[in-house]
Amino acid sequence: MRPIRPSFTARREGNARRRTSPVLGAVALASALVLTATACESGEDTNAGGQASASATTGGDGKITIPDDIKDRLKEHGIDLDKWKNGAWKNWDKDDWLREAQDYINPIIAGLWDPDRMREADDPDRGVDDSDLSGDQGVTDPTPQAVDAAAVAATYHSNAPEAGKVFFDSPEGTMVCSATVVQDPAHPGKSNLVWTAGHCVHAGKKGGWYRNIAFVPSYNDAGKSVKELETATKEEVAPYGVWWGDWAQTSDQWIEQGGQTGGDGAPYDFAVIHVTPEEGGSGKSLEETVGSALPVDFAAPAVPQVKSITATGYPAAAPFDGQKLYECQDKPGRLSLTASDPTMYRIGCTMTGGSSGGGWVATGSDGKPALVSNTSIGPVDAGWLAGPRLGEEAKGVYDSVSEKFAGR
User: Fold this and answer.
1) Can you tell me whether residue 384 is helix, strand or coil?
2) How far apart are CA 124 and CA 36, in angstroms?
3) Which candidate, 369, 376, 396, places its Cα nearest to that of 313?
4) d(Cα 270, Cα 254) in Å, to the nearest integer?
């Protein structure tokens, strides 16, 4: 099986590389389980990697500027902001690739994510062979029957207002994952938090933080075709704006264990991004802008008690094109990768790479819809997806990001 991989702008930044090396994707249990690897983010403090809060402010001339204290933080890492914005971010030398939780830096580069760059972003792959689950605790349920992904009716904002895409740059090129707007306990009704997969923000044990991480809610809201998108305006592609990740956290386990192939770190493959609008915006939060945010349930029922889960995302690997929103609904089973790690949810679903990080929604412990997981891995030939159960570690990442911005 293969993790769903992030997509990269192959035509612009390395089509050939894409054929030989999936970006963050798959942690192969044995051969090819694909993980929706878009980037894994680390938290700050004890739980996961955060980023130097590179929030931009808007001056009287309307231009976005980076505060001096942020510039100083960047300089501490040997990063010159002007050079970075002029292309120095493309330097992926191992010595310069920031890896640790506290090293996350993501200064806004206004206009970088234009319609063409977003359209051409590719999906990352991570794979595992589900025929070799030697680390199974003996609790893995039978492989589910494939469930055909159903197209979400446009406009997407009317039917799944919390859903969107996460874009980022990796050594392999420009890539994409899926993500969900979630509530922020520190800012009720005014959340700027986005939930996605860890592999959509951080490369795991052999890499560092991805760059130019941004979230676009209701991407291609009208469900235009690839051909129509070639002439679409930015407002049509990103009707609710481009939101840059000014802080991100993922689990320590993902940073330490996550890999490009197999299922390593998959039970901890989740991340939370705090975002800020690229253009300064109207002063409204992300939740106010899109009109909705999902609660996150860290005490979701065990698999036998969950009647149904709905997974949503933008699958980009064939036979999908990454431009439209899909969903799958199924009763989950259990997937165990190693005896020492928690079991994962698994559902039948034909979504492919690019859907990684997309939200899984079920009836929460309070009887209302809540996010209970995110797409992490799936088989190379599609047919099913697996996502982590959100417990103590996930809540720690979530609370840390919320608390960091509680007074702002």
Assistant:
1) strand
2) 6
3) 376
4) 8
Q: Which of 240, 256, 260 is nearest to 39 (CA)?
A: 260
The pTM of the full predicted model, rounded to 2 decimals, is 0.84
| Stretch 116-130: mean pLDDT | 74
Distance separating alpha carbons of residues 137 and 27, to the nearest angstrom: 18
> Three-class SS of residue 272?
strand
Q: Are strands 173-182 and 344-349 parallel, antiparallel or unpaired?
A: unpaired
Mean pLDDT of 80-85: 88
Per residue in 304-341, pLDDT tens? 889 999 999 999 988 999 999 999 999 999 999 888 89
The percent helix, strand, coil of the chain (3-state, each to 5) is: 20, 25, 55
Tell me the C-alpha distance between 167 and 366, whole Å: 33
Count CB neighbours of 381 within 10 A. 12
């980037």: which residue's tokens?
A: 39
264's tokens: 């390593």
What would the pLDDT profile of 246-296 be if each residue is shown by its tens digit?
Answer: 999 999 999 999 986 668 899 999 999 999 999 877 789 999 999 999 999
Strand pairing partners for 161? Answer: none
- Give the integer Cα–Cα distance in Å for 88 and 273: 23
Q: DSSP of 296-347, one letter per residue?
A: B-TTPPPGGG---EEEEE---STT--SSS-EEEEE--EEE-S-TTS--EEEE
Tokens of 363: 């009836």
Q: Identify the pLDDT of residue 305.
A: 86
Kindly report the average pLDDT of the chain as a whole number: 82
**Helices and strands of the chain, counted as H and E runs:** 11, 21
How far apart are the two ends of the chain, measured CA to CA in Å?
43
